[in-house]
C-alpha cells in the first residue's frame, strides 16, 4: 500500500489555487522559466521536473487562449490553476530570478500581486 489519500494529495501539491494574469504576462513568465539555466534551477532549489510541471500549467492556460480572438488576447485575463506549493515556488522565482530576465517591471509587479492574492485566498 502506498499511503492514504491525504498523503497522495500532499505529494501532488495540495490545494489548487487560481492565479489570474494577462495573457502577455503568462507568456513572459513561461519564457523566463524556459530560460533558466541548470545553475539557476539549483539556486532556486528546483529540479527539471519541477520546472516542467510549472510549465505544463502555463501550457494549459495557453491552450485556453487558442479559443480567444487573437485581436483580444492582449486584453484577456487567463487563469492558471496551480498547486499551492508551486505558487510558493513562483513567488520565489518572481523575487529572485525574474528581475534578471524581464525588462518590464510591470510584469513582475502583476505576477507578485496575483500570487500574493492566490495564496491569501487559500487561507
CA-based shape? globular
How many DSSP helices? 7
- What count of domains describes the coordinates? 1
Tell me the distance between the termini: 31 Å
Q: What percentage of amino acids are in beta strands?
A: 5-15%
The tally of beta strands, per DSSP, is: 2
Structural class by sheet pairing and helices: mainly alpha
Helical fraction: 55-70%
Spell the H/E element sequence.
HEHHHEHHH
Mean pLDDT, as a whole number? 84
**Uncertain runs with pLDDT below 50, 5 residues or more?**
none
* Assembly level: single chain
Keywords: Plasmid
Question: Topology of this protein?
Answer:
Layout: H1 5-11, E1 16-22, H2 23-34, H3 38-44, H4 48-65, E2 77-83, H5 84-96, H6 98-101, H7 105-122
Antiparallel strand pairs: 1-2
Could you explain how this protein is built, in words?
It is globular and about 50 Å long. The longest helix is centred in the middle third of the chain and has 18 residues, at 48-65. Strands 1-2 form a two-stranded antiparallel ribbon. It has 7 helices and 2 strands. It has one domain (19-122). It has 123 residues and is mainly α. It is 64% helix and 11% strand. It starts with a helix and ends with a helix. The mean pLDDT is 84.
Amino acid at each position: 500500500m502506498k499511503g492514504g489519500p491525504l498523503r497522495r494529495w500532499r505529494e501532488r501539491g495540495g490545494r489548487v489555487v487560481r492565479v489570474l494574469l494577462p495573457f502577455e504576462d503568462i507568456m513572459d513568465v513561461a519564457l523566463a522559466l524556459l530560460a533558466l539555466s541548470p545553475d539557476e534551477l539549483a539556486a532556486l532549489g528546483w529540479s527539471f521536473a519541477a520546472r516542467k510541471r510549472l510549465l505544463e500549467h502555463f501550457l494549459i492556460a495557453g491552450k485556453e487562449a487558442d479559443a480567444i480572438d487573437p485581436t483580444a488576447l492582449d486584453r484577456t485575463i487567463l487563469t492558471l490553476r496551480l498547486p499551492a506549493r508551486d505558487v510558493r515556488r513562483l513567488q520565489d522565482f518572481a523575487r529572485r530570478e525574474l528581475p534578471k530576465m524581464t525588462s518590464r517591471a510591470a510584469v513582475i509587479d502583476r505576477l507578485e500581486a496575483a500570487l500574493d492574492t492566490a495564496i491569501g485566498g487559500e487561507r
